[in-house]
Amino acid sequence: NTVMATQMTDAHRRFLQVLMSNGITEGSEARKLHQRCCETDKVFYAHDKLDDFIRTINSHLQPLFMQIRKGISEDDGRAHYAVVNLAETEVTKMASDYTEIELELFRKTMDLIILSENGFASSTDILNLADQLKTKKMKKKEAEQVLKVFVEDKWLSEKNGEYTLHTRCIIEMEQYILSNFQDVARKCNICHSLAIQSQVCESCGIGMHLPCVRKYFRAQTEPRCPKCNEFWSCDIP
Questions:
Q1: Cβ atoms of residues 11 and 38 within 8 Å
Q2: What pTM did the predictor assign?
Q3: φ, ψ for residue 67 (rounded to 5)?
Q4: Is the Cα torsion angle 74, 78, 83, 86 positive or negative in sign?
Q5: Which residue blocks in 62-206 are alpha helix, DSSP H?
């Protein structure tokens, strides 16, 4: 049995603690945190070693069925990190924080978002679901309040009355979404993360995140699909 090359230090533990209490951490914040933790505990620090640092933590989290995962914001393409519980395949992670009726509203909101063409659901459509819930009917005012909490807790994002899944939700629930929405859920052809807001090739059906579309076609003279080479008919963001 080979001994793990790198032991978990206090710096690793502190980094993990902060990540867990944040729910989700933006890439630049994670890099600052990495530096701070290493300097506080006087352990080796190199600015380009964050991935190795996280790999060490993940090797110790493996027996606990947990993992620090990296995902990208569908909004601006920035990296984010979140701690994922691999043992919980359903929306069970949320069950301790929300009531059954709140979870039902969340699931139905998720359905609307994932089944939509642009990865968004309007507040009107979501609030119309509130009085059709199986658990019990929810008043619209109550539903508005619950949606607000989902946004505060970083499960949903809201812009001008339109809701989409927060980066935290996408990172933590990727497996759940891929297995429960097999017909419609797709991974981005460029970064291979789950893509909710995406553009889709009309010829072969691959999808790409909007920031990935922007980055990929910036280097191309003519926008052609990276898979089938057909002309990319969507407007480049």
A1: yes
A2: 0.84
A3: -160, 140
A4: positive
A5: 92-95, 100-115, 123-129, 140-152, 167-172, 174-180
Could you count the other beta carbons within 10 Å of the beta carbon of residue 51? 9
Residues 81/54, Cβ–Cβ less than 8 Å: yes
Res 132: pLDDT = 85
- pLDDT, tens digit (0-9, with 9 covering 90-100), for 61-99: 999 889 999 999 998 889 999 999 887 655 667 877 899
- Extract the residue ranges of the chain whose pLDDT is less than 70: 1-5, 88-92
Q: Which amino acid is at 96?
A: S
Q: What are the backbone dihedrals phi and psi of residue 117, each rounded to the nearest 5 degrees, phi first?
A: -80, -30
> Where do we find the tokens 């032991």?
7
Name residues whose C-beta falls within 8 Å of residue 137's C-beta, 6 or more positions apart in sequence: 130, 131
In order of 5, 6, 8, the CA distances from 2 in angstroms are 8, 12, 16
The strand pair at 186-187 and 194-195 is best described as antiparallel
Q: What angle do CA 65, 69, 74 make, to 5 degrees?
A: 140
The values of phi and psi at residue 114, to 5°, are -70, -35
Q: Pairing between strand 194-195 and 25-26?
A: unpaired
List of domains in the chain: 10-64 (no CATH), 91-171 (1.10.10.10), 185-236 (3.30.40.10)
Token pair recorded at residue 39: 């300097």
